[in-house]
Batch of 2 targets.
Target 1
Amino acid sequence: MKEIISIKNLNKSYGVDSVKAVNNLNLSINEGEFFGFLGPNGAGKTTTIRMITGIIESDDGSVEISGLKHSEKSEIHKFIGVVPESRGFYDWMTGEEYLSFFANLYWISGNIEERVLGLLKETDLFKNKNKRIGAYSRGMKQRLGLARALINNPKLLILDEPTLGLDPQGQENIKNLLKDLNSKGVTIFYSSHILSEVEDLCTKVAIINQGELVAQGTVRELKDHTKAKSLTDVFLKLTSSNNND
Ligand SMILES: Nc1ncnc2c1ncn2[C@@H]1O[C@H](COP(=O)(O)OP(=O)(O)OP(=O)(O)O)[C@@H](O)[C@H]1O
Ligand SMILES: [Mg+2]
C-alpha cells in the first residue's frame, strides 16, 4: 500500500496561553482509504486538517502528501481537493460563475463548461446554477463547497464536516457521492460527528482527544478493543474525561 498522507510528531499551540491544540500527532493514510478523523469539539481536528492542507504552519513535526512537503504547494494543489470547515463564498456570484471561476484558476484541462455543468448536476445544484450564492440555503452552499473541491478531479479529498447542517436527503446524497468517488480510487480523509455515517463509509478511523491520538484502526478493531457495541460507544469510552479504563 502506498502512503498518501504522512504526519509525524505534529504539534500546534495557539495564542498567549498556548492552548495545545495538536499534541505530537502521528498518522499514516494509504492510497484508496476512506479515513475517518473523529474527536469531540475542540479536539484538534480542524487544526490538523489546516496543517495537512497547508493553511497554517505547525510548530514542529512534518506533513507529507504523496512524499511532497508544503514547500511544493503547487504540485500538491494539482491533485488535492479540500472542503474546509469555514467556507468563503463570493455571495454576488451565481453557483455556475463560482465554479467556472475556480475551474479557470486551477487550469483544469478539457472543456471547463462541461466540467462545471457536470459537477452542478452531481451535487444537485443544476436547477440553482443561475441563482446568486447569497441566496443559497446552507445545504446548497455545502454542496457548492464540495463541487468546488472536486473541480480538479482530485485523487485526495480532505473534508471537514461536509454534511454539517444538511437534511437527511442531502446527507445521503453526499454520502453516496463520496462512496462513489472512493470506489473509483479517490482517497478520502474525512472529519464528521455523524458516527453512523462514519461507520458506514470509513475503512479506517482515528480518534483524537485534546490534541492526542487515542485510537486508530478499522471500526471493527476499535469495537473489539474497547468491547463496545457501536462506534458511538467506542467514541464515548475513549473520549470521556473521567474514563478510567
Ligand atoms: N484560531 C485559533 N486561535 C486560538 N485557538 C484556537 C484557534 N483555532 C482553534 N483553537 C483552539 O484549538 C483547539 C482545537 O480546535 P479545533 O478547531 O482544531 O477543534 P475541532 O476538533 O475541529 O473541533 P470541532 O469539532 O468543534 O470543529 C481548541 O481548544 C480551540 O479553542
Ligand atoms: Mg472543527
Target 2
Amino acid sequence: MKNISFVFLILVSVISCKPTPTGNEDSANDEQLKIRAQELAHNFIITDGHIDLPYRLKHQKFNIDTDKASILSTTEGDFDFERAKIGGLDAPFMSIYIPSDYQTTGGAKLLADSLIDMVESIERAFPEKFAVAATPEQVSQMVAAGKIALPMGIENGAAIEDNLSYLAHFRNRGVSYITLTHAKDNLICDSSYDTTYMHNGVSKFGESVIKEMNRLGIMVDVSHISDSAFYDVMRLTTQPVIASHSSCRHFTPGFERNMSDEMIKVLAKNGGVIQINFGSTFIDENSIAVKEEIEKYAEENNLTEEDSLYKSYTASHPIYSNVDKVADHIDHVVSLVGIDHVGLGSDYDGVGDSLPLLLKDVSHYPNLIYVLLKRGYSESDIEKICYKNVFRVWGEVVSHAEQPQAL
Ligand SMILES: [Zn+2]
C-alpha cells in the first residue's frame, strides 16, 4: 500500500512538474498538423470510391463542346479539376449510375455506354489533365504524370440487362467495379432500399454474374444490396469485394443501406474494403431525424423543394453533420477489423446538399486527414485509408482475371 502511494505521489509530481502547454503552443501544434495534413493529401494518392459527376453532368444537359470549361472550374456540384487538385484527389471513381426506372423502361445498357462516353470525352477534351484508368498501375502512372485518373464503376448491375456477355463489354470499356443493384431489387439481387425481397438474396442469374465478374477481373461492389444479398455474395465470390460508398450501421441503427458490424467483419475476413460514405444522413442519426422532420413538414404542407416555405424551413433545420463524424466511422471500422479494410467513398455529387461541415466538396480531404492525424493515426495508416487498401483489393481482383483484358 505504501509503495503504491509512493508511486502515486511520484506520478502526481511528474505530471504537475510537466509544463502545461499554453494556448499558443496548442494552436501552433494544430497549425503544424493542418500543414502536414495538406502535405499528406498531396503526397499520397487519394482514391474516392464513388463520385457521381457523370450523372450530375447528364442532369445538367452537359455538352462537352460548349461546357467543357466547367470541368475545370465551376460553382456547381462538388467536383471540378481545380477543387480536386486543391484537395489532393487523384483517382475519383466515376459512377456510371443507372436509375432503377431503367429496369422497367429498358435502355440501361445504352445509358451506361453514354455515361462512359461522357467520361471518355472529358479525357479527350483535357488529355493533359485527365485519363481514364482501369487498374491501380494505370492510376499510379497517370498520377506520376500529374493527371487526375478517372476509374469507373457502374452503379446498378441492371446495366447488363439480362446478358452476361455485357460484363466483358463493360470491362473492355474500362469499368472496374459494378454495384450489383441500386434502389430496387433487380435481376441480380435484392436492394436494401426495396421492401419486396424478390430473391431473398442473390438470384440464380446473379450467381452467374458474380462468377463472371470474378473471372473478368471486375470488382463486386456490395453497397446498396440487402443484407441477405450481401451474405450470398460473400459465400459466392472467390475475390475480395468493396463497398464503394457505405458507412457503419452502428451509428444509424435500422438503416440497412449501411453495413452492420457483423457484415464489416465478414467483409474484412474476405479481404475487402468499406469506403465510408460522407453524406450526413449516412453517418449521423441526428441528420436522419432532421431529414425526417423536413419530409414530414413538406408532406403536411404539400410543399416541393422549389417552394420558398420549404427552403426557409430547411435553412432553419440544417441536416449537416461534420468531418469528425466521418472520422468516427473510420475509427469504428478500425476498432472492429483493423486498419486494412477502410477507405473513402464520399458520394460527392450524389447526396445533394447534405454533406457534413468541412467536407463539402473534393477540396476538403485534407480536413479529414487533419482529424485523423489529431486522433493519432500514423501516416502509413492514413496512406492505407487514402488508397492502399483499395489498391490491394483492386490489384488482386485484376490479377486474378482469367483473361486479362487489353485496356
Ligand atoms: Zn449510391
